[in-house]
Amino acid sequence: MEQRCPVALDPTGQDIHAEADRLRAQGPATLVELPGGVQAWSINSYAVIRQLLTDPRVTKNARNHWPAFINGEIPPDWEMISWIAMDNMVTAYGKEHVRLRKLVGKAFTRRRVEAIRPRIVELTGQLLDGLAATEPGQVVDLRERFAYPLPARLVADLIGMSEDALAKTAKVIELMIDTTVSPEQATAILGGWRDAMADLIASKRANPGEDITSDLIAAQEEDGSRLSEAELTDTIFAILGAGSETTINFFDNAITALLTHPEQLALVTSGQASWDDVIDETLRVESPLAQLPLRYAVEDIELDGVTIPQGDPILINYSAAGRDPALHGEDAHRFDITRADKEHVSFGYGPHFCLGAGIARTVATIGLSTLFERFPELSLAVEPTDLQPLPTFIMNGHRSLPVRLTAPVPAGAGAH
């Protein structure tokens, strides 16, 4: 097969969907260049993504399976170092992954999902009351005022983090997903989130509570499966980052889609379609997580004429999967909550399927339904084409979401 030069991914994320279409057209795996000149294999086909997400020859553990990282060829100030230097269930492989997922899974019980429901309702109401206090017709950034604080505060509650600590950590997370950062910033990011998690763990050791951090500290000795301090630190941060940033972008994308498709918003508010339809179609067409660095080939992997050599990095494009015309036809790019098949992999697939998916769906349903009950005439304050994407190819969302508020319906007037 003809050897192609690697395609440099756009670190500013200006049009991740068009970029994915071009890469998908080149075959099942395409060599791309990441920041810092690091090369990886980009996967943009739904069928190949599903295959590799369950393939035991694919790992997320750089420490054991990425020769360039093991040999010191990847510098400690590499722009994306935070994504591969973690030591938790996200990057674990084989038996280690099973051990860590079992421990962390105990923190995501159905009981905890139900226990947090009143807090979701309470916080949603507080945020919407704050919006209702503004003058009708005023333009506000709904990402800043609603899409961000709702999931971020809920995940902070889950791990037992104060709002002050969350505010400081949020800045680190924003920089971590930014694929335009400098090597100096990358070094500071890694140290910043680890320091923040160490402070949280120390406080919970001194004063344990009803939260996931306290549960994981208690689980360090359970069943002889001890969490190392690094695993504990990095696991809590993974829960914070995954639980907040992806849900923030989900709200951003779902609200944008509904405001630009008022006929579909009418279907769901009239009961002709469900909020589950909105959730799954949004996840399909606008996955909040675009591309998650990185996976690695444990051995050579053959993909329809393309060989991914052992040890090479692999970049799965989740945002490309649901838009693959081979799965959803030529209108795969179109937001349509009435389509019968809304298949997607936005919660992952296989061994790394998102443990927090149940909580995320609950937050999404309550948050969206209550928002549009309180503000049924909500509208975008700019043209959709004027919305600016986040400066990243890792996440899929907007820098801001300007909307025009109308007179709100009094709280409790709508049906929940």
Walk me through this protein's architecture.
45% of the residues are buried. The longest helix has 31 residues, at 229-259. Strand 2 (30-33) and strand 3 (39-43) form a beta hairpin. The strands form three sheets. This protein has a six-stranded mixed beta sheet with strand order 1-2-3-9-6-4. Helix 7 (110-132) runs antiparallel to helix 9. With 416 residues, it is α+β, with helices and mostly antiparallel strands. The model has no long low-confidence stretch (mean pLDDT 91). The chain has a single domain (7-404), classed as Cytochrome p450. It has 18 helices and eleven strands.
State the main characteristics.
single chain; 416 residues; alpha+beta; Cytochrome p450; six-stranded mixed β-sheet; three-stranded antiparallel β-sheet; 18 helices
